[in-house]
Write a structure and sequence with these properties.
Helices cover about 60% and strands about 0% of the residues. The chain has about 600 residues and is mainly α.
Length: about 600
């Protein structure tokens, strides 16, 4: 799972280039002359001007975005203004931008990079507007990378080393208590209006905040800027800021969650328990997948795919264990003594070796091989065992990409699953995908601050099977476990939110795959509860990429080049799946027509 980049506050649009029509001149005697004197702005230029404003204003309003997108910015003292007034203005600006984008004829953009830019903006803004029905700001308690953990990560990336940077750090983190108090106010407002996160999710966030507050001041992620600097006065000021302002604000947040909020939070896991929850789910589903499929359609396709995958596992199980029953094969894989780790260090080294092995093979499978390295980084101690999943953080100007991995209870971790997850997050998965997107010339920078799970997680899911094709799995269980899991998210996610599945039913269905330790099923249920629709994106996208590959192989025959196909899939970042299909089909047509 890639560390999510939220679709944050957007640009303020005052006068766009596509408004530069001479309507005001109609009432003048010299209307025709005035109209002739106004330069016409081509659609591609209109799109790029709108995208420039989106990009500039997003980084101005929410500079936090830069750290998760690996971007350089001039100053490091900003923090999102999460006040109701600021967010209202952001919504108005987003709607203005969306209206102007809709007015542009996308067909006139085909063949230019502006076609990609337009697709990103239109999908992002359209999904954002549709998902407002969720009122997520009123129940924003999220153990899967919520603001409380995101700001801890940003603090660890805060630049230091000069007096100016030290002052910027102190200015930024002095703003955090106000931000936290505003989040508490939103939660109070949400309860009054009938919105809440599930109790199980709330408890996970309480546990995460407790872990943060239990740290010594010098171990807090918010002390990190001082720990990486040698100025004593800065260290003293940062320590006082953490002890006297930041930690007390987190304590207020924690006490509110554990007291008044927990007392009224919903027991029900499904988002349909919130007002307009059904509309929220469908909007969220489409936002994550970038496809126009209903929850019912996703559910049914997922069931069909799971059934096909079970048949494939049976064929693998015959070879690996001499068994032809799905449940027996999974049980044999789980009981395989060669599939376990003894220590956290062993798990960490095994993952590092898998990443290195994959990197060495990649040039045979992609034409464009990025140079950015990726490192395997263990979770901070206070993050372990709190329900967060392994995830990828993109490379920045002065740092490599990071595959952040939990080492909690290593004796319960599977070697086969550790392989599949490493390939998903690094090579040929997210790291390759993001690094290629960062290196392609001609893409507008907005493609680096907008992330779509359907194509993004879809590529990473496809990468798990590609790694098998590449011969990267060294375990007997890796190919079995990675095949037993896919598309279950397409079933269990709508099952939990739309079709009345219980926690126990969802856990049983996920644990049947054997992909994760049984205890992980409980964590996965709470992940689905707080990210409605997100778990469907992996295989919605993965199936689409597989279908496009099959289409290309059939059309091109011996002329099919797997390296070229992968370059075409990756060269526009996480472009929405509808545009990815159009792009690949156009490439196929060009290849077919070539002499």
């Amino acid at each position: 799972m890639r560390q999510a980049i939220p679709l944050l506050a957007l640009s303020a649009l005052i006068t766009s280039a596509c408004d530069q029509t001479p309507t005001a001149a109609v009432s003048t005697p010299n209307a025709e002359k005035v109209a002739a004197s106004v330069p016409k702005v081509e659609p591609a230029q209109q799109v790029n001007q709108l995208a420039d404003r989106y990009y500039e204003q997003t980084l101005s309003r929410t500079p936090e975005t830069a750290y998760f997108a690996g971007l350089e910015i001039d100053r490091h003292d900003g923090m999102e203004d999460n006040s109701p007034e600021a967010r209202k203005l952001a919504r108005e600006d987003a709607d203005a931008l969306l209206a102007q984008l809709i007015a542009i004829d996308a067909d006139r953009l085909v063949g230019s990079s502006a076609w990609i830019t337009h697709a990103y903006l239109l999908q992002a803004l359209g999904a954002q507007k549709a998902q407002r029905v969720c009122r997520t700001d009123l129940w924003n308690v999220n153990q899967m990378g919520g603001w409380h953990s995101a700001y801890g990560q940003i603090a660890q990336l805060q630049p230091t080393g000069s007096e100016e940077l030290r002052q910027q750090s102190l200015i930024r983190w002095a703003k955090l208590p106000k931000y936290i108090d505003q989040e508490i106010a939103y939660l109070r407002q949400g309860l009054a209006a009938g919105y809440s996160a599930p109790k199980a999710v709330v408890q996970r966030v309480i546990d995460q905040v407790d872990g943060l507050l239990a740290l010594e001041i010098e171990q807090s992620p918010f002390y990190s800027p001082a720990a990486r600097d040698d100025d004593e006065a800065f260290a003293s000021a940062t320590g006082s800021l953490v002890a006297d302002q930041i930690n007390p604000a987190f304590q207020r947040y924690r006490d509110y969650l554990a007291g008044p909020y927990m007392a009224e939070a919903r027991e029900t896991l499904s988002v349909t328990a919130n007002p307009d929850g059904l509309a929220c789910y469908e909007a969220s589903l489409r936002g994550y997948t970038t496809l126009d499929r209903s929850g019912k359609e996703v559910y049914e396709l997922g069931q069909q795919t799971v059934a096909a995958n079970k048949e494939a596992v049976i064929e693998l199980g015959k070879l690996a264990y001499g068994l032809d029953d799905f449940g027996a094969i999974i049980a044999a894989a789980k009981a395989d003594p060669a599939d376990r780790f003894d220590t956290a260090d062993e798990l960490l080294q095994f993952s590092k070796d898998a990443v290195l092995r994959a990197a060495e093979e990649m040039p045979k499978w992609v034409g464009t091989m990025p140079q950015q390295p990726v490192e395997v980084v263990p979770f901070a101690e206070h993050e372990e065992g709190t329900g967060r999943s392994a995830h990828y953080r993109p490379a920045g100007p002065d740092r490599p990409g990071e595959y952040r991995i939990p080492l909690y209870q290593p004796e319960q971790q599977s070697r086969g699953n550790a392989e599949a997850t490493a390939f998903h997050e690094t090579w040929p998965g997210h790291h390759l995908q993001v690094a290629v997107g960062q290196s392609v010339e001609g893409l507008h920078p907005v493609t680096r601050i907008i992330w779509f799970s359907g194509p993004g997680e879809g590529w990473a899911r496809y990468s798990e099977s590609l790694a098998d094709e590449m011969g990267l799995y060294q375990t007997k269980t890796g190919p079995i476990r990675r095949r037993a899991w896919p598309a279950r998210g397409m079933v269990v996610d709508p099952g939990l939110h739309l079709f009345g599945w219980t926690r126990e039913q969802a856990i049983e269905f996920m644990n049947e795959s054997g992909r994760f330790p049984d205890a992980r099923g409980d964590e996965m249920v709470d992940r689905i509860a707080i990210l409605p629709g997100q778990l469907t994106a992996y295989d919605s996208g993965g199936l689409e990429i597989l279908a496009l590959r099959g289409q290309a192989e059939q059309a091109l025959g011996d002329g099919f080049d797997i390296r070229e196909f992968h370059d075409r899939v990756l060269e526009n970042g996480t472009v929405p799946l509808k545009q990815l299909r159009a792009h690949i089909e156009a490439w196929i047509a060009t290849k077919v027509e070539a002499p």
